[in-house]
Amino acid sequence: MKKTLTALALAMAAATPALAELVVPNLSYRTGPYAPGGIPYADGFNDYFTLLNERDGGIGGEKVANPECETAYNTEKGVECYEATKGSGALVYNPLSTGITYQLIPKVTADGIPLYTPGYGRTSAANGKVFSNVFNYPANYWDAASVAVKYLLDENGGDLSGKKIALVYHNSAYGKEPIRTLQELSKKHGYELVEVPVDHPGQEQKSQWLQIRRDKPDYVLMWGWGVMNAVAIQEAANIKFPMENFIGVWWSGSENDVLPAGDGANGYKSLAMHGTGMDYPVYADLKQYVYDAGKASGAGDQVGSVLYSRGMYAALVISEAIRKAQELAGTSAVNAAQVRDGFEALEITEERMAELGLPHFGQPFAASCSDHGGPGAALIQQWDASAKKWSLITGFIAPDDEVLTPLVMEDSAAFAAENNIAERCN
Amino acid sequence: MPDQLLFAMEVTLNGLMAGVMYSLVALGFVLIFKASGIFNYAQGVLALFAALTLVGFQNGQIPFAHLINAIFGTNLHEFGWHLPAVVAIALTGAVMVLLAIIIEKFVLKHLVNQAPIILFMATIGMAYFLEGLGDIMWGADIKKLDVGLPQGISETVESVTDSLFGYGFFIDNLDIVATVVAALLVLSLTLFSQYTKYGRALRAVADDHQAALSVGISLRFIWVLVWSIAGVVALVAGIMWGSKSGVQFSLSLIALKALPVLMLGGFTSIPGAIVGGLIIGVGEKLFEFLVGPMIGGATENWFAYVLALLFLVFRPQGLFGEKIIERV
Hints:
The complex is a heterodimer. Chain A is 43% helix and 13% strand. By secondary structure, chain A is of the alpha/beta class. Chain A folds into two domains: 19-139 and 278-376, Rossmann fold, CATH 3.40.50.2300; 141-272, Response regulator (Rossmann fold), CATH 3.40.50.2300. Chain A has a seven-stranded mixed β-sheet, with helices on both faces. Chain A has a two-stranded parallel sheet with strand order 1-3. Chain A is globular, with a radius of gyration of 22 Å. In chain A, 56% of the residues are buried. Chain B has a single domain, classed as ABC transporter involved in vitamin B12 uptake, BtuC (Orthogonal Bundle), CATH 1.10.3470. Chain B has helices at 3-36, 43-58, 65-72, 85-106, 116-138, 155-165, 173-195, 197-207, 209-214, 219-245, 255-265, 270-290, 300-314. Chain B is globular, with a radius of gyration of 21 Å. Chain B starts with a helix and ends in a 14-residue tail after the last helix. The relative contact order of chain B is 0.19. At the A-B interface, α2, β8, α8 and α9 of A face α1, α3, α5, α10 and α12 of B.
């Protein structure tokens, strides 16, 4: 009996995977109305870490674990996931939800854990002097709004005066983020801004698009997520709004958003923080070590899509921050505080992106104590419905920092005053 | 004619069309409530499940492919066929009937004579189960639904109104189709319930379960029948809404649009579902047009409920609902 128990204990010990040193929880959403966006992002995120584990033995010799926790894009569940996973030695969070991000900012700051929110979350977190634990490089919502306006300026010979721009937005904290920026930019460039809110989930938008048909804006910008994007693009096609004048933020620019409208979506444009598709060397390694090895996350059918690429990019930045933290701390078994330092000292050059198998995929950036937001540049991509493919039609466009920097400073100063935060980095 | 008046007319027409779309969802609720007194929380999910199944059949998707692949290490995804829309719709209709039989056999049969709240809770459970089942069977990715329905602006309406008023109205072709389909559906349901043996049995059960049982009507059969019909109505709603937005999991949330319609029209009246839908559709669209811009817009979701509540103050049973008289 004793022998049997010993054998059983040994067998169990052998069967249990070795405890990973680096825990990067994946607060994902694979269920509910926003699952079509959450699944590819989570798959890309997981697959990149699987690649590092399988090909390189992890980061700096330490394996990475990605325990998943389902948030269903629900803020309360997201906070529960944070509380449930932080005790496992979580090094960083990336919840893919602006609502969850807002709730986690005070918590991660108190707990000393970094929060990485690329292209989403609280924009003014770009000010590292106030937001010590939040990082949103390479670009944020206000950058996106500014880049969209700069692109329209280019399209109109540098003059938008007298033009009418409608903003169709998800009536939530996320959707309202660009309004202030667009209002400020309208003062500078003389365009008229028309705000058109759409309530969650956005399945019915007849009123909004009738309004757009009546108002006849020259351009429509969209800050949508989930089904709202697909319905908006279909409705725009229905009213024959010129698709080339319809530009979505990067969260309104995935295959999920355009495919349901079929040919009607042809010519629709969106912002992009990074490249997409599988024409990058990293995919050869992913194929060898992850897909062909049967270790792909989820069903393995999201590879190369826009949101898969974004999840992979987020994982890449996190892994580089961990690598930097290991370098700074002189140990491979880093803790959350050290990873925060890694995020703050992170620099990703084009040469490094090429080494990682993703040349010309994302913009180079260097963070600092005060700059947690990066350069904020973005690309414009356009949908080709017949080829079912996004094509990049511009290079990286830099945002208008002259307008954005004071806004970031103002908002972060208000947050600092509300929460009695003393500025750092002085 | 002043522009604002023309715009209001256009908004009213579109409100009527939107109301028809809401009614399509509300009809399923009414059918089941009328026949069994169950408020079927799962009706929205039934529409989602039907639409997922329809797209799956049409595209030759292998059900449970992800699960099979995960267990057996295979790489199965599609059968390799593309079914004509009519065949796929017929097959999906059959699946909805099968689902009704399963629901009756495994859920309802065991809950006969239970309090309505127990049955309601059971439908909540069914909603979550079916949503999960749909996910496992067909995947959670967004799918394009194309059964050949026309979409986009009706050129005829636009040109006629343009010649009449100097402003071409926007009416979506899909909404026109939905209106015709809803009218046919209501007509068929009315003919079925008035002139067929099973329709009369269904009405008898709706009037008085005990009396219907005493004359030999099988309650279990009627439940299967009514859940089958509600399943087919859910399929129609799923097709119409899925054609608009693609088939994805927020399709189940269309039930939220049906609730104010039911509150207003009454839970037991098919004409009530239609009239309620039209009032909600027009009311919310006109309110958004006239008042929305003054208070920041996005009023439709909450205004539909406010409108329904206003009606409830004066007619608690809804416009066409049966008046509840309880004697002490």
